[in-house]
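Dear U.,

For the methods section draft, I wanted the exact inputs and outputs in one place so we can describe them consistently. I've listed the two proteins in the order they'll appear in the manuscript figures. Please don't edit the token lines directly; just add comments below if something needs changing.

First protein:
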Amino acid sequence: MITKTLLHIIAFGIFCMFMIYCNYVELNEFVEKRNNLRLSQVRSVLQKLSKDSKNAKFNDIPLVLIMCQNKGSIFQSSTASGNRLQWQRQKEQFKTLFGSLLYFSNLAQIRVLLFTDSAKTSAELLSSLAKWPRYQRSRLTFELHNIPTEMLHREQLMQWRPCAWAKMFLGEMLPDFDSVIYLDSDVVFLGPVEDLWDIFSKMNTSQSIAAGSEPWYVEEGRKRPAAGTYGINTGMLAMNLTRLRSAVDAGLGETLQNIIVDQDPPPRHDQDALNIFLVDRPEMLHELSARYNFIPSSCLKVAPKCKDCTEKGILVLHGADSSFYRLVDAKSKDIYHILYEATDTLEDSLPQLLGKLEHQMSYIDSQGSRFTFMCQHYENYNQQLLHHARAMVASTLS
């Protein structure tokens, strides 16, 4: 009896050792395969996992960012110090953008397609979020993509900031996607990102691009072609890629790079080129109010009055032309830097964050003519900037 029991124990022990060995081999194989995965394979896994998100309604239309570290031949800027400064700012803006998004959104999961010039660039950007609580980081699902440089003409790439043209190729870069929301890295959220998805329900069946106005085209006397009523700014674009591919056989990016060759004056950047393209195709454009892309020129006298901003508050604040780092508009600059500090760790509660914002707006107002800035005489500016924060804090206290 003892011998039989002992044999059973030995057999069970051998079986356990065999299973441990099999799991060990399998784990080693997995680790080895994981270490040898190409970046494209990692992206494939991320894309598969993203399908399990609890917020499928919103994940159907992802956010898109395109960022470059400006190293390497095709993305090289003119000076090494310029590269370092620009890259440091981009990392700061990346963190602040997504931190502000999380502060004002109630979504448990937000899908982001991140296009970069290298895996190193992606890693540095994502590492800038390392101080955040895990539950906050887990709300963002990043899917990593390479920028397909073979699509881009060098002369256009080098004409403006590196990578700026890539967003015009999203229809070709994302052939399996119906719609996306593109964001420049120098934007911050002052309200819920969820409101951006409402744009698509307001577009008709001919409209493939929704964009906010760029009043500088009017301020400059319309010396350059300006789409829509005032010209458009490309810092935030809601794009129906299916309609765009159908409307432009050669692809938007390639078409833009080809039609601007003989343009006089030549376009300064991709935004000029898109305006040129849409001037003759007004049916493709859905014009948005400044609420969705509020830039310093939104305060110009020639700019359209933003009823949406007054009634609902500014949703996306855009530091166009490095205005978050220059004294173009004191209030938007200070709001950005308060958000930048708060999003380092995301430890401040929304009431604490609102308190800091309110204090700084009051301080600027108290200084009178000491601060001169673009939006100084913009009516109800504080209310428009802080509308969402105030409403969200009030709702938690009621």
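Second protein (the one for the lower panel):
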Amino acid sequence: MVPLPHDFAISTALSKEDFPPRIVEHPSDLIVSKGEPATLNCKAEGRPTPTIEWYKGGERVETDKDDPRSHRMLLPTGSLFFLRIVHGRKSRPDEGVYVCVARNYLGEAVSHNASLEVASKSMFYILHEQQLFLMLGVIVEAQSFLLKGIC
């Protein structure tokens, strides 16, 4: 009979506590202005702690971990931070649909899709117009409520 190493029972007990990754915070859709910073959030649990990678349109996203000059940073939480959104007439490298993937030796978990859209000037005006109507609606409702109380 071959004797087992002293730490065999300990390592076996620890591995029973291991569990596959699961996404606990999914990224949300973003509308961002060109040149502004942005963050796509993602958090995962698992044991051992899962590694997180981001994909856009099925392709792995290059971050500062791959190239220190990259404008995209993988944060310790797993979120993807853009120092500035890059968007041009011919090239739109940041715009698209993203997912984060968490992996450990027990498996992987994939987040919900999140779209990152770069705001155009017309979209900017529409958003501000909607906010203005919302604010005016609240003011009108408040005035109506006050008038009902007085009359």
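Candidate sentences for the figure legend, describing the second protein: The radius of gyration is 24 Å. Confidence is low (pLDDT under 50) at residues 7-12, 134-147.

Thanks,
Y.
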